[in-house]
Amino acid sequence: xxxxxxxxxxxxxxxxxxxxxxxxxxxxxxxxxxxxxxxxxxxxxxxxxxxxxxxxxxxxxxxxxxxxxxxxxxxxxxxxxxxxxxxxxxxxxxxxxxxxxxxxxxxxxxxxx
Length: 113
What we know:
A 4-stranded antiparallel sheet has the order 2-5-1-6. Strands 3-4 form a two-stranded antiparallel ribbon. It contains 3 helices and 6 strands. Helices cover about 20% and strands about 40% of the residues.
């Protein structure tokens, strides 16, 4: 089964210059996913200041700077993984380096084909 891990972090953590000090933990996590044969893809995302929201209502395109909703946590990145089941996905999600201070939303990927 394919799952997406959506990684949420508090804005103040993302903006902390010392946050990059934990980069090795992220690299190690990525290597462990690859070694397990589960890693399909991942990316970090730019900050909220780079976000743009697009809506189309009654044929009119509305473009707004910033994210869809204001929250205390921001979407900082994602992983796409292939794991046997939900339980395995939850176990791997608990190992993501931001789990102690952020949140990981685990979503099954809808297979349409």
